[in-house]
Amino acid sequence: VALTEFEIIRRYFARAQLAFARDGVVLGPGDDCALLALPPGEELAISIDTLNVGVHFPKDADPFLLAQRCLLVNLSDLAAMGAEPVGFTLALSLPTVDENWISQFSNGLAKVAQSYQCSLLGGDTTKGALSITIQVHGRVPARQSLRRKGARVGDRIYVSGTLGDAAAALCWMQNRSPFRGKALDDDSAEFFRNAFYRPQVSIEAGISLRRLASAALDISDGLASDLGHILEAGDLSPGSQTQNKASGRIGAVLDVHKLPLSVMFLRYVPPARQLALALAGGDDYGLCVTVAPALEAQAVSRMQALGIEFTCVGQIEKAPGIRMRDAQGVTAPLTFRGYQHFGVKDG
Amino acid sequence: VALTEFEIIRRYFARAQLAFARDGVVLGPGDDCALLALPPGEELAISIDTLNVGVHFPKDADPFLLAQRCLLVNLSDLAAMGAEPVGFTLALSLPTVDENWISQFSNGLAKVAQSYQCSLLGGDTTKGALSITIQVHGRVPARQSLRRKGARVGDRIYVSGTLGDAAAALCWMQNRSPFRGKALDDDSAEFFRNAFYRPQVSIEAGISLRRLASAALDISDGLASDLGHILEAGDLSPGSQTQNKASGRIGAVLDVHKLPLSVMFLRYVPPARQLALALAGGDDYGLCVTVAPALEAQAVSRMQALGIEFTCVGQIEKAPGIRMRDAQGVTAPLTFRGYQHFGVKDG
Fold first, then answer.
1. Which residue in A324, B254, B328, B331 has its CB near the most CB atoms, within 10 A?
2. Which of B17, B41, B13, B292 is nearest to B150 (CA)?
């Protein structure tokens, strides 16, 4: 006999490993709403993301790993705001009730939830094509959140972690070039599997960059595309088109020879493909931040103290657009953009 | 050329009719997170719900109406907590980019968003089977929220609005008995269409019942099933199984001859089907609340002042289970339950 929606929730989601007590959570799952409290002087940061089968992950994705990715990509948005996780909601659509799948998915969620102290607050379990929507809720002191808007001419552009690993991992998982027909050794396979399913999200990095970064976001669509958001910051807010015209006119130069690339990336991705994957490949979920020159040393030393790779990859300039600059100082306009769900955007 | 994800968001979602300024919204769409502030002494109430094509609505559902239903069923959860809407997030999966569909959907959202002062805070637009997940965010003074837990023996059971109209509407839209082959006149068609797509959610009702209702929820799965949640309240919270054994042991009697049924319902649904649709049919989204006898008159007069139909349909009793009682005082155990997504739960 198939489990009812209530039984699924009771057994696999409303359990102490997932829906645990957490400061600020007044009421967890089981009522019409969950209830959150905020300490005085703090704001609640929220972000929602959907991962769909066949679009964001393959049908046979390991549910334990998939769950980790689902929650981590959302936590990445909190990190990019300088916020600290409190809890998350889960809207899960399942085509059938596969208890083994659900159990492993729940375990993957619990692993990340516990390590980030992000408790399950509530959710909805429905029948439908496999789809996972998670909303995260975090807290950040008022006026200290990291925004996309705020970069100024002369600011240095930094990224955390390495670039392109997740995009390379996707090529591998889809048996595409440069991995087509290649059998990876266990270490390589684990590296790329983790690069895709378990992005290294550092909440501490975001918190440490409060009051230091002039602008910040997480790299989800590829550095080229996401840096573009920083340059056009605020464009999506209503009424901001005029307000942000000024920041929309700034540009950037990227020192392509300084892009942080992993050993595994360099081992498998041929030089001719490296730039495309590192700049236009998405899913890395490191941070991209801009820092005023006067605060640069402090930001670098804080990241160093956290053991986080933090690399200066360029600078904000007055001239609009993004330019690539090589070790010889030769510049060329950037011609590829990040991943887009629908259609292709001109660069 | 297909629109990009960014263009869809810019044109149809990050517009002033949807993402409008609202007290408590520090930062709206366009950044990694939205930011909310809470006045001191208030709590944030959140609820997430998914509607999937082919499960919760037909593929050819009118997008203008569908959008209204999506937001209203979520607002209903805020009403049931006694919370006031602030804003909502939207995770929208679309199989293709149909601008006409998206535009109408956006208009439907805007209609409800404006009438309930619930601003779009952010979202995610992805490719996938048509699926709409909305999370609502509301505020409620600390310790004044209406919970499912709290009903006591002797409390009266009240419902707002009428019962069964949405379930009847579903029969009509699916051309099932008692509507099979029947052509409805325009008034009837509009009544049933609205019953399903535009449930009458009253935020004021929830607010007015603060400090008066001992327990509350919205009727989404059918009165029988949802009243069961009040009787077993808190069962889904971790560690609550022992804690709530006491409330899990209470029961209720429903005066089936007092169930509020609409004129249209009585006109189309034959007597033999009425009880099943009114008690086990879902989607009505009225409130079901329990009120201590001492507060009953006050609750009734407040609902009357709001012009809300508010009907006593029974009473909480010591004996577990739900019993039906007819006008002659004859009781029988309730034998049908509300809608369940997976499998069938025994009564």
1. B254
2. B292
